[in-house]
Amino acid sequence: MLDQKQIDLLRAQDVPAQQHFINGASVAGAGGGRDVVSPIDGRVLTTISAGTPADMEQAIAAARAAFDDGRWSGMAPAGRKKILHRLADLIERDALALSVLGVRDNGTEINMAFKAEAGSAAGTFRYYAEAIDKVYGEIAPTAPDVLGLIHRQAIGVVGAIVPWNFPLMIGAWKVAPALAAGNCVVLKPADTASLSLLRLAELASEAGLPDGVLNVVTGRGSVIGETLALSMEVDVLAFTGSGGTGRRLLEYSARSNMKRCYLELGGKSPNVVFADAPDLDRAAKVTAMGIFRNSGQVCVAGSRLLVEQSIHDEFVAAVARHGAALRVGDPLDLNSDVGAVNSRAQLDANLRYVEIALSEGAECITGGKAILGETGGYYMQPTVMAGVGAGDTIFRDEVFGPVLAVTPFDGEAEAVRLANTSDFGLAGAVWTADLSRAHRMVRAIRAGVVHVNTYGGADGTVPLAGAKQSGNGADKSLHALDKFVDLKAAWIQL
Prior knowledge:
This protein has 494 residues and is of the alpha/beta class. It is built from 15 helices and 23 strands. The chain is globular.
């Protein structure tokens, strides 16, 4: 159980200026420092290194050298397994400190951060540590005078670029399977959420990860992300973020060495509620948390609520009631249900979407405003917008804030049509007591994960894979390993 006194003690600690982590050591870099502004109070928390192309090239060279000499890829799987288990142990040891550090950096409420950041990251490293010596090669069904072997080999250097909403969790989704497969990694965190990932690299070194195997370079994506993506020495890119950046990464891959590019590009996920949902009040409460937790800054957030017409008014009122009851405030206060928006720019973007929705004819049922401005931080009310049409901006665009777009439907066919009226296809949900309808909807909704009578909670045993413009490749589960291995066939004449 979390303790407020411990949290407050960790909050009070100064955060020293942070540097890149390259080849097993902190490196100042050539670009000076950049302020880290905490969304809790709008104050400067510390500085991080402003990465330059030269800094990124140094990290890539370290990763390439570490891969080529086999200090990690050549280690027996059992050896890699021990080190990754040790890293998971260290994350668990420092879980509260890591979580508080991350919250001060990005604003996620501490109750969620403790589970979804440090807790999830430790579990992810442990999962792939256990997988290392349990993933086998294959023997092909050849003629008797031939032996066909199929090997799975590490690819080389992996460039990982992760967002600011859950940096430690999503960073682990990239780094853990890449390391488990024997690769070396250059990790580029988001400019507004780098602190916990820099600490992760230090813990990895403490766990015994060889120098150069995991490197972290901080700074602007337009500067160092481009260098990483254009490098001829990087073999794989694994990215979570915006569609615009994902498109540029694909272009950079084509302009360089045709490196594999795996993209998770967010979503505009439909949450479909039928009148026969087994418990409408519970569905309304879960719906509210499915969009308002972490101030809506969740890739799989149920940001489009599709409600059967016969229960529309009653259900929307219940969602609004549950949303309005959530306490928005200091994310390091255990009594807060919802924390801060990550940055002033993100808060301003959220508010603009509300204004656009109103101008297009939507009705604000609850919320819609910035609050707690006196703190200096960035906070927004949980917001429910009803009367949103399929052509409206907030029906189409990923707001990435605590803004729920509500649209009514009549019948299953219209529900499917509206659910799939989106360029995205990351997640979705259906609420119904009809088992046959649930299976039909799971098949019909074009998304990587479809929840039934719940929203969220899918653990590391199942993949998170995007459909349509939500990306390609899978995070989580054993399927994530596929991104980081080469298949090599050996054809042996007997």
